[in-house]
Amino acid sequence: MNLKLEGKVAIVTGASKGIGAGIAKSLAAAGAAVAVNYVSDKAGADKAVSQIISDGGKAFAVQGNTGSEGDVQRIFEETIKNYGRLDILVNNAGVYKFESLEEISREEFDRQFDTNVYGPILTTKEAAKHFGEKGGSIINVSSVSARKAMPGAAVYSATKASLDIISETFALELAPKNIRVNVVAPGPVDTEGFATLGLKGTDFEKGLIAQTPLGRIGQPEDIGRVVTFLASEDSAWITGERITTAGGMK
């Protein structure tokens, strides 16, 4: 087993299920101790933690809304209390709702931007205080929708496009502290959310697969492996980059 993250500590936001849980499991499998953040799905977070521990890894669940400054401070404080350090931050927490132009409201706009954009700003600011002298790695989870227009996704796509440029900016600002900031942009992934939307086995899913050169929907572990690479020393000379992880979908 190649434990390239052995001795490292990671926070993964929005990790109770789906892509976030897949990322947490991948980091733990590589040797990192992981703080599994959740907002309301305690059962999901506890399940992810149990799976990590049963596989021989280290993890604990920590509740907190990344759009709240107080919650963010507590998430980091509890992680430091449990593991004594911080090396990796994965900003995966995100919300979405697909609406036509006529349906877009200020309330929904604020909800998505608070979590998808302001949240990563708060967590990045906090992480920079806790990384040690050797720096750290921040990986932000964006989406192909940041650069691929889709009807009904105007607000969500705008949040992810914002996250892309914010990541590049912070990569420049934090480079003197040896803190790297990169982006992973998944395409369609087979998660609980995908199933909840009723997309499994539909013509819509078939259409997505048809647009994907590798011919399948992604799995959470597909994203987790790329995040693990960006969290490790294998990517020590990479910052300010965006890796589209979508089976060739553009």
Automatic annotation (TrEMBL):
It is an enzyme of class 1 (oxidoreductase). Belongs to the short-chain dehydrogenases/reductases (SDR) family. It holds the Pfam family adh_short_C2. InterPro entries: NAD(P)-bd_dom_sf, Sc_DH/Rdtase_CS, SDR_fam. Keywords: Oxidoreductase. Coiled coil: none annotated. Its EC number is 1.1.1.47. PROSITE patterns: ADH_SHORT. The keyword Oxidoreductase applies. This is Glucose 1-dehydrogenase. NCBIfam families: PRK07231.1. GO terms for molecular function: glucose 1-dehydrogenase [NAD(P)+] activity. The keyword DNA damage does not apply. It comes from Flavobacterium arundinis.
